[in-house]
Amino acid sequence: MKRTFLTLLALPLLMTAVAQSSKPAANAVLISQVRNGNTVTTRYLVPQKNNLHAGFDLHYVINRSDISPVYGDNAEQIVDLREFMQRTADTMMHIGAISVHGYASPDGNAEQNDSLAAKRASSLYHYAMNTYHPKAKISTSSRVFSWKECVPAVTESDIPSKQAVLQILNSAASEQQKQLELRKHPDVWRYLTAKILPQMRYADIEFDYGVDSLVTTTFVEQPKPAPAPAPAQTAPQEQPSIVFIDEETGVIVATPKERDERRAYRKEMREKRREARRNK
């Protein structure tokens, strides 16, 4: 009946991204920005929600509430808890909630079991507080497992008279009556006390936390196109001055006409001179 927790110890402390866009995440906080030529490198802090979970559990000797580092797999769990708490010193990690739960198995006196479960929660609470001094507040709770909660473990076991045991566990009898019925079968009771009930005597500590990310974006600015060169201002070519000398008057006539225009002009002038001579 031991609950299984996902222990997350490999924390993503740094994430680097290279992008072709300078747009950060919506909740990103600008840390720095460096320009090198047309390349802009920007670093952002991206806060993460407390959506990660880690849990560690310590088991207890029957009728005891003090932590024994050598009992069961407590030594391994203590090492894992210590490594996790060391990582909480990283400024990128933040714990949102810590909770401690104490449990007792259903065998024995009900009132004593209630007290035992609460003491186990208290012992783990004080161990965490005195050893690691977490900043987040630790909440505590406790409860006693019922006999019916043994059903999954019994179903998967090779306990003697399994069907008879399951019938007792699922019955509507009181907790005390179920215990009396189970004790009537010595081999069944030995199996329960050796392999199933010890797994229900524990306390666990759970963490809800988040790990912020450092994101680096590299944005390459596209160079602005160079303005098109202005068309060269070429000076209008002057037409060569052509000099004509009127044969009759001796007047010098200069004109910038092209060759064809000069020919037409000459022809026109000749016609005019002929016409003038005819009119004399």
CATH homologous superfamily of the domain at 29-145 and 201-217 - what is it?
OmpA-like domain
Which stretches are poorly predicted, pLDDT < 50 over at least 5 residues? 1-22, 239-246, 251-257
- The share of residues in extended strands comes to 15-25%
Mean pLDDT: 82
Written overview of the protein:
- Among the domains are: 29-145 and 201-217, 2-Layer Sandwich (60s Ribosomal Protein L30, Chain: A); 240-268, no CATH class.
- The chain is 32% helix and 25% strand.
- The chain is built from seven helices and nine strands; from the N terminus they run E-E-E-H-E-H-E-H-H-H-H-E-E-E-E-H.
- The strands form three sheets. The protein has a four-stranded mixed β-sheet.
- Mean pLDDT is 82; it is low at 1-22, 239-246 and 251-257.
What are the SSEs and their pairings?
Layout: E1 29-36, E2 39-46, E3 52-59, H1 74-87, E4 93-104, H2 110-132, E5 138-144, H3 151-155, H4 162-169, H5 175-183, H6 186-196, E6 202-211, E7 213-220, E8 242-245, E9 252-255, H7 259-278
Parallel strand pairs: 4-5
Antiparallel strand pairs: 1-2, 2-7, 3-6, 4-6, 8-9
